[in-house]
Amino acid sequence: MAADKTKPNGVRRMVKGSDLLGRALERIGVNIIYGVPGEEILDMGLRRIHTSGNQFVQSNGVAIRLKSISWFGAEGENYTPHGTWGRSWRGIIDQIKQLGFNRIRLPFSGYMSTSNPVPPSSVISASANPDLLGLTALQIFDKIIDYCLASEIYVVLDHRRRTAGVGADGSPVGRRRQSPGTGEPPMSAALDAIPSMIDRIRHDLVGLKMPRALEALDHVVRRLEHAELSALEAIHILLSEELTLRENSRIKTALRMGRLATIKTLAGFDFTFRLSLDRDRIFTLAQLGFVDRHEAVHFLGPPGTGKSHLATALGVEAVKAGKSVYFTTLADLIGGRLPVPNGKVGSRSAFASSAGRAC
């Protein structure tokens, strides 16, 4: 390697390109090791990579497939990658290697690179990582990067935020320059006026009247940023959250319209109180085959034996299954006082309450 242009406690970084890039990185606290032109081995066995068509190719001409994983945490106020509070940091890298990954992305903040704080002691386990105690954030990055290189794992440093925190807070470069003589931001700044993708998704969710998905969006995006979810899993979670809200709302409305004010369920019924009751038969009734067959079910017995509880529980199951339900007394049913919606006879399944229960 050529002479190491370093600063105290600096993160080492292999850079291929102009000195301008190197000086820019050094200004934000990332120190550089410059490679000698034509040198094939960067450090500890890793070869320089370039692109050829749609492939990454090593300097020896062999194509390489980069399998990447993001190790978040240092961009936040912990100033160290997640997991160091409970596991050996070397063990985490070893596991990443064993899982087949050969590149790690390490997000960090501009504050971390310029202020170089010491991470809180609460985020570093004294037993698992005694060698990290008292080190600054950049010193910890040095150790992690050295070990990754020794393990033949490439490292990508991701200047993710200006300030320490969760997620991305915009361009890490800093203040925008003004266009000469105009006092106005340059044309590229006009992009800031375009709503971000997240803002557009929020707008679409409002237009689609999906309040629960809108409420869950930020949390799902954070999990995506931390590589805890795939894109398809994120979509599924948002849709499932909204579907659950709508289904709960439908059930609540149907129960109210069906006069099932006191909700009883089969799970809340004490079958040990009535040992003569066939539990399996009751749960078979809850599958509602008798409704499809247009059959009646009668619960007969003295007061206090759970007839109303069972009739109501079957009504609840019917509502969950999308059936229309109405709870009434047997006297009202016989007297013809059962309300019928929209004048359509038989459009409701009646779960009746009296000395004899009829469903």
Number of strands: 15
Strand order, main sheet: write it out: 1-3-2
Uncertain segments are 1-22, 27-44, 171-195, 342-350, 352-359
**What global shape is seen?**
elongated
Instruction: Supply the number of helical segments.
Output: 11
Radius of gyration: 33 Å
Major sheet: size, sense and barrel closure? Answer: 3 strands, mixed
Helix content: 25-40%
- How far apart are the first and last residues' alpha carbons, in Å? 86 Å
List keywords for this structure.
359 residues; alpha/beta; three-stranded mixed β-sheet; 11 helices; elongated; disordered N terminus; disordered C terminus
Secondary structure topology:
Elements: E1 4-5, E2 14-15, H1 19-27, E3 32-34, E4 41-43, E5 46-47, E6 49-52, E7 55-58, E8 63-64, E9 68-70, H2 89-98, E10 103-109, H3 110-115, H4 137-150, E11 154-161, H5 197-207, H6 211-225, H7 231-257, H8 279-285, H9 289-292, E12 298-300, H10 307-320, E13 325-329, H11 330-334, E14 349-353, E15 356-358
Parallel strand pairs: 2-3, 9-10, 10-11, 13-14
Antiparallel strand pairs: 1-3, 4-5, 6-7, 7-8, 12-15
